[in-house]
Amino acid sequence: MLNKIYEYIEDIKGEPTAHLSGLKKVFLSNQETSSPLTQFAYGVFKPGEVCDSHIHPTMIECFFFIKGFGTYTVGAESVKLKPGTFLQIPANTSHELVNDGTEDLEFVYFGVATK
Questions:
Q1: Tens digits of residue pLDDT in 57-92
Q2: How far apart are alpha carbons 74 and 92 in whole angstroms?
Q3: 84: Cβ–Cβ under 8 A, 6 or more apart, which residues?
Q4: What are φ and ψ of residue 11, in 5° steps?
Q5: Which residues have CB under 8 Å from 24's CB, separation 6+?
Q6: pLDDT at residue 31, rounded to an integer
Q7: Cα distance between residue 95 and residue 51, in whole Å
Q8: In the sheet that 95-98 helps form, which strands lie side by side, from edge to edge?
Q9: What pTM, to 2 d.p., does this model score?
Q10: Which residues pair with 101 in a beta bridge?
Q11: Using CA atoms, how far apart are residues 78 and 30, in angstroms rounded to an integer?
Q12: Sign of CA dihedral 83, 43, 111, 6
C-alpha cells in the first residue's frame, strides 16, 4: 500500500523501461496501491530511441508529452508527438514509440489494468 504522500523526481532512481528502451522513474507502482493502476511514471527517450511494437492485452496506457518530438504508432494510426500531446492506448492494441526528434522526449504516463 501507499506509504508516501510525495516524492521529488531527483530522489527517484532511474531504471530501464520494461521494454528496455528509454529510462523511467516510477512515482507509483501496482505494489503500492490496491487500485487497478499498474504504474505512474516519468519517462525519457533519447533521440533515436525506439520502443518496438507490442501489445498489453489487459492494460490501458495514457501518456502526456512534456518535451521533445516523436511519433507514436497506435494500431494503424501514427501520431506526431509534441509538447502538450495526450495519447491513450486501448488495451490489446499494438503500439510503438519513436523519438525521431533531436532532443530528449519527456513524458509522464500511467497504466490501468482492465481485468
A1: 999 999 999 999 999 999 999 999 999 999 999 999
A2: 11
A3: 65
A4: -90, -5
A5: 14, 15, 16, 17, 41, 42, 43, 44
A6: 87
A7: 9
A8: 50-54, 95-98, 70-74, 77-81
A9: 0.90
A10: none
A11: 29
A12: negative
